[in-house]
Design a protein that fits this description.
By secondary structure, the chain is of the alpha+beta class. It is built from 6 helices and 8 strands; from the N terminus they run ααβββαββαααβββ. A 6-stranded antiparallel beta barrel has the order 1-2-3-6-5-4. The longest helix has 14 residues. The relative contact order is 0.18. Bound molecules: flavin mononucleotide. Flavin mononucleotide binds next to strand 2, strand 3 and helix 3.
Length: about 220
């Protein structure tokens, strides 16, 4: 273990690929986000749509996990989950959340902060209907974030719901659907040599986006 600890203590790499300037960024952060997402997709990054989302309970105790962004637009970014999960419960207590995309292959990260709300039922319905059948059944079988006795119990529930919905469309469970995070803050980070990274922030002030640079 000591060898491993020494190794992680000594790993270094420089960031060389690109730069980011206030003068060349988009005026609207969602457009800048779209541009970087398109470049992450083009770079064939594995799971460019994976983002880490931090939520916190009403005491401010934080928790993080990865989810997939499934859509975005001028109003915000959308992901889907179980409303009764830990993250769902925390968002019910505290709508503030923070998201991170890490795209190491292009030496970039994006931070987004905002407030989450549930999307309209029709939007959750439409997305749920587009999911593979086994995932739809899984949304019924899994009481996400609750304790479960064994793997067998979960598989048994999957089988039971499979039988219940045989020959029928699987309806969206009432406890499953989308959240839209309405952003108030974006930070675009581009790795640069000698740890002198570029960090460009968009902060929403009275419904206008102020753009500024942070020290690395
Ligand atoms: C790459 C990846 C993508 C994931 N995507 C989702 C997702 O879109 N929705 C979701 O509910 N959980 C997703 N998960 C599982 C979550 O990370 C997490 O385990 C689960 O949502 C329970 O979190 P919670 O107990 O904090 O609510 C994903 C996990 C990984 C590693």
């Amino acid at each position: 273990m000591e060898e491993l600890r020494n190794y992680i203590n000594s790993i270094r790499r420089d960031f060389m690929q690109r730069e980011l300037n206030e003068s060349s960024v988009e005026k609207m952060p969602i457009k800048q986000f779209a541009q970087w997402m398109a470049e992450a997709v083009d770079a064939q990054i594995l799971d460019p749509h994976a983002m880490v989302i931090a939520t916190a309970n009403s005491n401010g105790k934080p928790s993080v996990r990865t989810v997939y962004i499934r859509d975005f637009n001028e109003s915000g970014i959308i992901f889907y989950t179980n409303f009764n999960s830990r993250k769902g419960k925390e968002l019910a207590e505290n709508v503030d959340c923070s998201v991170l995309f890490l795209w190491e292959e292009v030496e970039r990260q994006i931070r987004i902060e905002g407030k989450a709300e549930k999307v309209a039922e029709e939007i959750s319905d439409a997305y749920f209907a587009s999911r593979p059948r086994e995932s739809q059944i899984g949304a019924w079988a899994s009481q996400q974030s609750e304790k479960i006795k064994s793997r067998e119990e979960l598989e048994k529930k999957q089988k039971e719901y499979s039988q219940q919905f045989e020959g029928k469309e699987v309806p969206r469970p009432p406890h499953w659907g989308g959240y839209i995070i309405k952003p108030e803050y974006f930070e675009f980070w581009q790795g640069r040599p000698n740890r002198l990274h570029d960090r460009i922030v968009y902060e929403k002030k009275h419904s206008l986006w102020e753009i500024y640079r942070l020290n690395p």
